[in-house]
Specification:
The chain contains two helices and three strands, in the order αβαββ. The mean pLDDT is 93. β2 and β3 form a beta hairpin. It starts with 15 loop residues before the first helix and ends with a strand. Helix content is 30%, strand content 29%. This is N-acetyltransferase domain-containing protein. GO terms for molecular function: acyltransferase activity, transferring groups other than amino-acyl groups.
Length: 79
């Protein structure tokens, strides 16, 4: 598991997260992985959801955490 957080507002929207995910996808393909799964993106995190959807990740489930906050899991099939 690799947590990815762009915490400082001044660094958000600069393409850093997108580049990191693109490199992870490239490495996963090189390692012959069949898929990549993102375990938890909260419904209020629209920027993160848009990023993964733009990179062809598909929502595969929606659940609620212990504080009743909705989150989704996403997956990208590589083969």
């Amino acid at each position: 598991m690799i947590p990815i957080v762009i915490g400082e507002k001044m660094f958000r929207g600069k393409g850093i997260g997108k580049r990191v995910i693109e490199l992870i996808i490239k490495r996963a393909i090189h390692l012959n992985w069949s898929s990549i799964k993102v375990n938890k993106i909260y419904s209020y995190n629209s920027a993160s959801r848009k990023l993964f959807e733009a990179l062809r990740f598909v929502e595969v489930s929606t659940k609620f955490d212990e504080k009743n906050r909705e989150y989704s899991s996403f997956q990208l099939l590589l083969r």
